[in-house]
């Protein structure tokens, strides 16, 4: 069990909050994927995977179809995916992924959140070295498949960690190998229940309870913004919180 498992354990109980936010963020991802690779999931692996995510989150079919339709509308210019990097209070590194139709608004908002909460926005690329960009697949367990054999098989596809959890297996791989891993899983009859891209911190920083409160205020403010898709940080999770 490596860093990926620890990271997952920490994130597992921190969801996007309410269903409306989940659907908004997923809808944007679906629209971006459909615009980039076409609206037909048969010919668009990323869109296919996102539709599985939507199914897992009980996102209504109408919402999914609307998000795909938006991508092919003539007057839709598309969402721009922008990353922002900075330091929160007490030197905690924060990586913010956004999808926006107005970058001027987004950067102004993100900068104001950092400034108001004792942090500062850095230059693009300044924190990338602190995080490993990974793809993650959740697959249903298959009868008669040993994790060791599957791991050996997938090493050639850029997979570096497998984690067993109840009725599913979680696979972590290199971000650039996302398509190859998905293709292998689909061709070998594995059911992909969901997938995502994550940034796993190389090193976690300890903070006091008081410091954590200040940092979490900034993270919550960022996550509440409609343009923000994901927030990653290198703060060590509170061990005392336990499972919800």
From TrEMBL:
Transmembrane segments: none annotated. It is found in: Cytoplasm. Residues 4-72 form the TACO1/YebC-like N-terminal domain. Residues 79-235 form the TACO1/YebC-like second and third domain. Keywords: Cytoplasm, DNA-binding, Transcription, Transcription regulation. Pfam families: TACO1_YebC_N, Transcrip_reg. GO terms for molecular function: DNA binding. Belongs to the TACO1 family. This is Probable transcriptional regulatory protein H8S65_19520. It comes from Parabacteroides hominis.
């Amino acid at each position: 069990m490596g860093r990926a498992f620890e990271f997952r354990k920490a994130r597992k109980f921190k969801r996007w909050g309410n269903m409306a936010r989940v659907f908004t963020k997923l809808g944007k991802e679906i629209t971006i994927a459909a615009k980039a690779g076409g609206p037909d999931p048969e010919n668009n692996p990323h869109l296919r995977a996102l539709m599985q995510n939507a199914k897992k989150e009980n996102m209504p079919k109408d919402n999914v179809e609307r998000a795909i339709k938006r991508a092919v509308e003539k007057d839709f210019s598309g969402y721009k995916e922008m990353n922002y990097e900075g330091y929160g209070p007490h030197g905690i590194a924060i990586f913010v992924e956004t999808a926006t139709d107005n970058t001027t608004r987004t950067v102004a908002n993100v900068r104001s959140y950092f400034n108001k909460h004792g942090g500062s926005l850095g230059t693009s690329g300044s924190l990338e070295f602190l995080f490993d960009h990974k793809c993650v697949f959740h697959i249903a367990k298959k009868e008669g498949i040993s994790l060791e054999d599957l791991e050996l098989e997938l090493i050639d596809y850029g997979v570096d960690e497998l984690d067993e959890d109840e009725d599913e297996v979680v696979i972590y791989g290199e971000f650039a190998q996302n398509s190859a891993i998905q293709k292998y899983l689909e061709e070998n009859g594995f059911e992909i229940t969901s997938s995502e891209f994550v940034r796993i911190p190389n090193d976690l920083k300890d903070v006091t309870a008081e410091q954590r409160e200040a940092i979490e205020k900034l993270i919550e403010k960022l996550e509440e913004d409609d343009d923000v898709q994901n927030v990653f940080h290198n703060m060590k999770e509170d061990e005392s919180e336990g499972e919800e």
